[in-house]
């Protein structure tokens, strides 16, 4: 059962101020409001018509925020059972369309999917150091002019990518990337 503190709110768009609830889960760190606000300022607030992937959905804050701001399709991947069930409940409570929630590992999805995405959110648990493995796979799934948002415990400078914008909040470094 989710505690009251295990919640985040959608900060913009159609579902602004709606609350998402999520359970305790290892490595689950929802992207804070201030960081999401910065990210969506970088992206231009509206994501009309974009196809997005939230590869480590967790609370769903990034994926639901994208849907709220007009993304045509958002795929949320979450492997942990409790978090996956919470994502399904939140989508139902919002009566949101264009959101697909899969209980699937991000690495296998990126390696086997033929889908391409305009925007990919990568916020894996920091303990597993998955970003160096996932980032190159995500780059192969980018649509032309696509971008990747990534969070990491240290600054990123991935080979073959350009850092468009970057910031830091607490222990998290975050950046917006595109293919070089």
Question: What labels would you give this structure?
Answer:
180 residues; alpha/beta; Rossmann fold; 7-stranded mixed beta sheet; 29% strand; globular
Distance between the termini: 44 Å
Strand content bin: 25-35%
CATH superfamily: Vaccinia Virus protein VP39
Report the major sheet: 7 strands, mixed
Mean pLDDT: 92
Number of helices: 5
Overall body shape: globular
In order across it, which strands form the biggest sheet?
5-4-3-6-7-9-8
Q: What CATH first level would be assigned?
A: Alpha Beta
CATH architecture: 3-Layer(aba) Sandwich
Query: Percent of residues in helical segments?
Result: 25-40%
Low-pLDDT runs: none
Number of DSSP E strands? 9
| Structural class determined from secondary elements | alpha/beta
CATH fold annotation? Rossmann fold
- Work out the count of structural domains: 1
Helix and strand arrangement:
Layout lengths: L6 E3 L9 E3 L11 H11 L7 E4 L6 H8 L4 E5 L3 H14 L4 E4 L3 H7 L4 E6 L8 H10 L1 E11 L8 E9 L2 E8 L1
Parallel strand pairs: 3-4, 3-6, 4-5, 6-7
Antiparallel strand pairs: 1-2, 7-9, 8-9
Account of the 3D structure:
There is one protein chain. The protein is of the alpha/beta class and 180 residues long. It has one domain: 3-Layer(aba) Sandwich (Rossmann fold). 28% of the residues lie in helices and 29% in strands. It contains 5 helices and 9 strands. The chain has helices at residues 33-43, 61-68, 81-94, 106-112, 131-140, and strands at 7-9, 19-21, 51-54, 73-77, 99-102, 117-122, 142-152, 161-169, 172-179. The chain has a 7-stranded mixed beta sheet, with helices on both faces. It has a two-stranded antiparallel ribbon with strand order 1-2. Helix 4 runs parallel beside helix 5. The radius of gyration is 15 Å and the shape is globular. The model has no long low-confidence stretch (mean pLDDT 92).
């Amino acid at each position: 059962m989710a505690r009251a503190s295990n919640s985040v709110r959608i900060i913009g768009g159609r579902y602004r101020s709606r609350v998402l609830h999520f359970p305790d889960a290892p490595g689950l760190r929802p992207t804070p409001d201030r960081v999401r606000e910065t990210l969506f300022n970088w992206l231009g607030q509206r994501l009309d018509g974009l196809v997005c992937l939230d590869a480590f959905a967790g609370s769903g804050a990034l994926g639901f925020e994208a849907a709220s701001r007009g993304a045509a399709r958002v795929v949320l991947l979450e492997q942990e059972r409790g978090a996956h069930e919470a994502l399904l409940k939140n989508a139902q409570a919002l009566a949101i369309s264009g959101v697909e929630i899969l209980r699937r590992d991000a690495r296998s999805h990126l390696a086997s999917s033929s889908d391409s995405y305009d925007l990919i959110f990568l916020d894996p648990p920091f303990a597993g150091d998955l970003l160096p493995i996932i980032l190159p796979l995500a780059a192969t799934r980018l649509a032309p002019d696509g971008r990747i948002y990534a969070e990491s415990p240290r600054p990123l400078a991935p080979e073959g990518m350009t850092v468009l914008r970057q910031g830091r909040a607490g222990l998290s470094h975050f950046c917006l990337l595109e293919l070089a």
